[in-house]
Amino acid sequence: MTELVNVSDLNQFIYCPRRYWYLHFYDTQGRNYERIDGKTTHENQSTRSDWLNELYLESEEVGLKGKIDVLDLDSSRVVPVERKRAESGQYYQSDKIQLAGYCLLLEQHLNEPVEEGAIYLYETDQRMHIPITEQHRQLVRESVEQMRSMTVDSVPPLVDNPRKCRSCSAKSYCMPYETAMLEPSKAQQTGWEDPQAVRSELES
């Protein structure tokens, strides 16, 4: 049986494949504040009769496994809801692709299209409905294939947006500044071509 990819790891991979590589092969995530607080917040959510909480699904055909936070049943169609801590009050492309992964699993489970999901932001108490397009589905499939093909001997290149490194929990293992300084070839077309300038910007 081929190893299934956890849907939550899609978020890590889309954000930065190099970050995912370190988390997957070296378990560098640890018990940080965001994970602990997020789990506590989930546990403290009230229940509703028109919600189904924490539905675990897996599919060899899709290549994914994961637990949907909430299924909203109070509509003409089932809507998976992903809860997020986001101090900025925003969600990102990586969040949408994670949600798309859950929709693909739900489609397999229900044997019918799931064309919409939702992201709930704790900080703003807002629920954003996200149409799930074929482009989202294709990116999920491509990402799963790439994640499965990763090996411990092949470290992905530096991320193309150095600002993502500012608060990354894998930064002390990834060492983007040191990598760019000592191996300039790995910094080409990544945004890390001038590591000293980038470091100054990130620390300002």
Provide a short characterization of the protein structure:
This protein has 204 residues and is an alpha/beta fold.
Task: Please describe the topology of this protein.
Elements: E1 5-6, H1 7-15, H2 17-26, H3 33-43, E2 51-59, E3 64-72, E4 79-84, H4 93-110, E5 116-121, E6 126-131, H5 134-149, H6 171-174, H7 176-182, H8 195-203
Parallel strand pairs: 1-3, 4-5
Antiparallel strand pairs: 2-3, 3-4, 5-6
Helix pairs in contact: 1-2, 1-4, 4-5, 7-8
What are the key terms here?
single chain, alpha/beta, Lambda Exonuclease, Chain A, 8 helices, globular
Question: Can you walk me through this structure?
Answer:
This protein has eight helices and six strands. Strands 1, 2, 3, 4, 5 and 6 form a six-stranded mixed beta sheet that branches. Helix 1 (7-15) crosses helix 2, helix 1 runs antiparallel to helix 4 (93-110) and helix 4 (93-110) packs across helix 5 (134-149). The protein starts with a strand and ends with a helix. The protein has helices at residues 7-15, 17-26, 33-43, 93-110, 134-149, 171-174, 176-182, 195-203, and strands at residues 5-6, 51-59, 64-72, 79-84, 116-121, 126-131. It is of the alpha/beta class. It has two domains: 5-155, Lambda Exonuclease, Chain A (Alpha-Beta Complex); 157-204, no CATH class. The radius of gyration is 18 Å and the shape is globular.
Q: How many DSSP H or I helices?
A: 8
Q: Count of DSSP E strands? A: 6
What is the C-alpha radius of gyration, as a whole number of Å? Answer: 18 Å
- What is the rounded distance between the termini? 48 Å
Q: Given the helix and strand composition, which structural class is it?
A: alpha/beta
